[in-house]
Backbone:
C-alpha cells in the first residue's frame, strides 16, 4: 500500500545511490549523442550543464554554510528581547 | 450594452459578505460554491471587453478583460476553488471571510482598467491578507501581521502618490503601459515593487507567510505577489531595471533557504526566487519572455500552493513545521509526500512538469537577448531551487532522521485539493499547448526540443549528485534551531533606535521644557482664573441662592406650626379671618 516502505530497509540507501549514479552515467553518455543547438559556444562543451549544476550547488551550499550562516544566525528569541 | 457574465470580483465580494453570517456546514459548502461559480463564470468571460463608467468626474473601467488579465483571472479562480477545498475542514469563519475577500480583491486588481479601481482593490487586498496573517494562531502572528501591514500600507502610499502625480501630469487614470520615465512612474513602480518582493523590500514575505494558519499561507502564496507581477507585466514590460531586480531575486533567497529551519520559510524564500524569474521575464520584455512570465505565474501559483498545502498538512497533522522537529513522515503520510514530490518536481522544472515548460521560456529569452550574466544566474537559481525546494522540503519533512512522529494522513478534502493541483502540474507539463494557447502572444517555443530536455536533466541530475555527496560527507549544513536575520534587521533595529531616541531625547525634552512652559503659560493662569470664578460662584451665586433658601425655610417652619391639620382649627381661623376682614372694612369705610 505504501510504496515508500522501501526506505525502511537498510539497503535502500545503497540501491538509491546505484540508481542515481547509473542514471547520471546514462545522461552523460546521452550528452555526447544528442545534437546541440546552443546560443553560446561554451554550451557545446561535453556535459557543460552537468558541471555547471554540480559546481553551482556545491558553491551554494558552502557559501550558505560558511559565509551566510555565521553572519545571520541568531537565537530563536532574538527579536523578543 | 448587456452583460452576459458577472464581474469576477463581484462573485467573491458577495461570497465574502454572506460568509460573515453563515456558520457550520452551510459555510463550508458556501466557500466551495462561490469559487465554483466564479470558475464557471471565468470560462465564459468575453475577451476584449471593457466596462466603462463615469464616476466622480473620472472615466473608470472597473472591468477590463483582455488576454493578459484573462490568464491571471482564470488561474485565480482555479486556485480559489482549490483553496476552499483545502480549507473545508477549518472551522474559523474569519479565515473564510478573509480568504474570499482576498480573492475578490486580487481579481479586482487584475481586471481593473484604471488606477482608481486598481488602488481600491490593492488596499482591500493589503487589509484582508494582513488579517489572514493576524488570525494565523502562531507565536508571532499578530506582530508579523502589523509589520506586514506597515510594509503594504507604505507601498500603497507610494502607489497613491504615483497615481496622483500621473493623473496630474497626463489627466488620465487609465491603467496601461507606463514605462519608467518620470517620478510618477517611479513611485508606481516602487508601490508595485513592494508587493512583488523586490530585493531589500522583500522581507515582509518570509516574515509573515510562515505566521499564517496552515490554510492561510496557501491563500497568501497565490494572490499577493502574483497580482503585483500582473501589474508589472501590464505597466512596465521591457523596463531594464526589472532584469537586474529579477535576477537578484532569483539568486539571493536560495542561500537563505539552504540554512533556514522553518519549512514554510524555506518555501517563502523559494517563492521570492520564482517571482524573480517572472520579474526578469517582464524586464526582458520580448514576446517570448512575457509569455514565459505569464505561463510561469500560472504554473507557479499551482505548484507553490501545492507545496504550501503539503507543508500545511504536515503542520496541521503534527503541529510542527521546523526541519529539526520533523522527519520520517513517509511512513504515515504517503499521499501528502507524493503530492509534495510533484510540487517539488514542478518548482524545480523537471521535464513533464509545469515548471519545465514555463521557466525555460524565460531562460531561453535571456539567452536570445544576449544577456549572458543574467542567463548564468538564472541557471544557477534553477539548480539552487531544486536544491532547497526540490530536495530539502520533501527530504527533511518526510525522510531524513526519524522524528518518531506518526501522524495520521491528512484528511480527504486536503488530499483532494493537493491531488487536483498535482494533476494540473503534470497535465501542464505533459500537454503545455493548452496553457500556451491562452498566453498573450502566439507561442513559437518548443519546450521538448531534445537539447532543452538534456540541459535541464543534466543540471538537475548533477545538483542532486551534489546534494547527495554533501549529505553523505556531512558537509551539508545541519538543521539548527535558530533564526536567520534578513534585511528587515535594518528596519526593525532602525525602528528600535528611533524609539530609543524618541524615549530618551524627545520624551525628556517634552518633560523638561515643553511641559514646564505649558504649565507656566497655560495651566497656572487657567487655574487662577478658575479659582476666581469658583470664589464668585461660592460667595455670590451660592450665597444668594442659599440665603433665599434659608429665609424660605424659616418662613415655612413658622407656617408649619400654624398648620395643625384639624378641620375645626381651620374653621376657627377662617371665621376669625372673616371677622377681622369685616372690622377692617368697617373701620376703613368710617363707620356703618
Residues:
Amino acid at each position: 500500500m505504501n510504496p515508500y516502505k522501501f526506505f525502511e530497509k537498510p539497503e535502500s540507501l545503497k540501491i538509491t545511490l546505484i540508481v542515481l549514479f547509473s542514471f547520471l552515467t546514462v545522461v552523460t553518455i546521452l550528452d555526447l549523442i544528442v545534437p546541440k543547438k546552443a546560443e553560446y559556444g561554451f554550451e557545446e562543451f561535453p556535459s557543460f550543464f552537468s558541471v555547471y549544476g554540480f559546481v553551482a550547488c556545491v558553491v551554494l551550499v558552502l557559501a550558505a554554510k560558511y559565509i551566510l550562516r555565521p553572519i545571520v544566525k541568531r537565537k530563536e528569541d532574538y527579536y523578543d528581547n | 450594452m448587456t452583460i452576459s457574465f458577472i464581474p469576477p470580483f463581484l462573485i467573491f465580494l458577495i461570497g465574502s459578505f454572506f460568509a460573515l453570517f453563515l456558520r457550520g456546514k452551510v459555510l463550508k459548502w458556501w466557500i466551495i460554491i462561490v469559487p465554483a461559480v466564479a470558475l464557471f463564470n471565468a470560462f465564459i468571460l468575453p475577451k476584449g471587453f471593457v466596462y466603462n463608467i463615469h464616476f466622480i468626474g473620472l472615466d473608470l473601467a472597473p472591468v477590463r478583460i483582455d488576454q493578459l488579465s484573462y490568464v491571471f483571472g482564470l488561474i485565480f479562480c482555479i486556485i480559489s476553488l482549490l483553496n476552499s477545498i483545502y480549507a473545508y475542514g477549518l472551522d474559523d469563519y474569519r479565515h473564510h471571510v478573509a480568504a474570499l475577500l482576498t480573492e475578490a480583491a486580487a481579481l479586482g486588481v487584475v481586471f481593473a482598467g484604471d488606477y482608481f479601481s486598481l488602488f481600491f482593490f490593492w488596499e482591500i487586498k493589503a487589509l484582508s491578507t494582513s488579517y489572514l496573517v493576524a488570525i494565523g494562531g502562531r507565536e508571532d502572528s499578530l506582530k508579523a501581521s502589523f509589520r506586514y501591514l506597515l510594509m503594504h500600507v507604505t507601498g500603497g502610499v507610494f502607489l497613491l502618490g504615483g497615481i496622483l502625480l500621473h493623473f496630474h501630469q497626463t489627466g488620465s487614470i487609465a491603467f496601461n503601459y507606463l514605462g519608467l520615465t518620470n517620478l510618477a512612474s517611479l513611485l508606481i513602480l516602487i508601490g508595485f515593487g513592494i508587493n512583488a518582493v523586490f530585493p531589500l523590500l522583500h522581507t515582509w514575505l518570509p516574515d509573515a507567510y510562515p505566521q499564517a494558519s496552515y490554510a492561510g499561507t496557501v491563500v497568501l502564496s497565490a494572490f499577493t505577489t502574483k497580482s503585483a507581477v500582473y501589474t508589472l507585466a501590464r505597466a512596465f514590460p521591457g523596463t531594464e531595471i526589472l532584469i537586474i531586480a529579477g535576477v537578484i531575486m532569483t539568486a539571493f533567497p536560495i542561500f537563505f533557504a539552504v540554512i533556514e529551519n522553518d519549512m514554510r520559510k524555506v518555501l517563502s524564500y523559494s517563492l521570492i526566487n520564482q517571482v524573480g524569474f517572472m520579474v526578469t521575464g517582464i524586464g526582458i520584455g520580448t514576446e517570448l519572455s512575457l509569455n514565459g512570465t505569464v505561463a510561469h505565474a500560472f504554473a507557479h501559483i499551482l505548484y507553490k500552493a501545492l507545496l504550501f498545502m503539503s507543508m500545511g498538512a504536515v503542520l496541521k497533522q503534527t503541529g510542527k513545521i521546523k526541519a529539526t522537529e520533523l522527519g520520517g513522515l513517509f511512513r504515515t503520510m504517503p499521499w501528502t509526500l507524493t503530492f509534495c514530490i510533484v510540487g517539488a518536481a514542478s518548482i524545480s522544472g523537471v521535464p513533464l512538469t509545469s515548471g519545465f515548460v514555463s521557466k525555460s521560456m524565460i531562460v531561453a529569452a535571456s539567452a536570445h537577448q544576449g544577456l549572458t550574466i543574467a542567463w548564468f544566474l538564472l541557471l544557477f537559481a534553477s539548480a539552487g531551487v531544486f536544491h532547497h525546494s526540490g530536495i530539502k522540503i520533501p527530504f527533511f519533512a518526510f525522510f531524513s532522521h526519524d522524528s518518531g512522529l506518526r501522524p495520521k494522513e491528512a484528511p480527504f478534502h486536503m488530499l483532494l485539493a493537493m491531488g487536483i493541483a498535482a494533476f494540473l502540474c503534470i497535465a501542464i507539463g505533459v500537454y503545455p499547448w493548452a496553457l500556451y494557447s491562452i498566453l498573450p502572444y502566439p507561442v513559437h517555443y518548443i519546450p521538448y526540443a531534445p537539447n532543452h530536455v538534456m540541459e535541464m536533466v543534466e543540471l538537475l541530475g548533477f545538483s542532486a549528485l551534489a546534494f547527495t555527496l554533501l549529505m553523505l560527507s556531512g558537509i551539508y549544513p545541519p538543521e539548527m534551531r535558530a533564526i536567520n536575520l534578513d534585511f528587515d534587521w535594518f528596519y526593525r533595529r532602525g525602528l528600535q533606535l528611533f524609539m530609543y531616541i524618541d524615549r530618551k531625547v524627545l520624551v525628556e525634552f517634552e518633560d523638561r521644557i515643553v511641559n514646564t512652559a505649558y504649565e507656566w503659560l497655560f495651566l497656572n493662569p487657567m487655574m487662577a482664573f478658575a479659582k476666581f470664578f469658583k470664589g464668585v460662584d461660592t460667595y455670590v451665586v451660592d450665597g444668594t441662592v442659599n440665603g433665599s433658601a434659608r429665609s424660605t425655610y424659616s418662613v415655612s417652619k413658622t407656617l408649619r406650626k400654624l398648620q395643625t391639620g384639624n378641620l375645626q382649627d381651620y374653621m376657627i381661623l377662617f371665621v376669625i379671618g372673616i371677622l377681622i376682614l369685616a372690622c377692617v372694612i368697617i373701620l376703613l369705610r368710617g363707620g356703618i
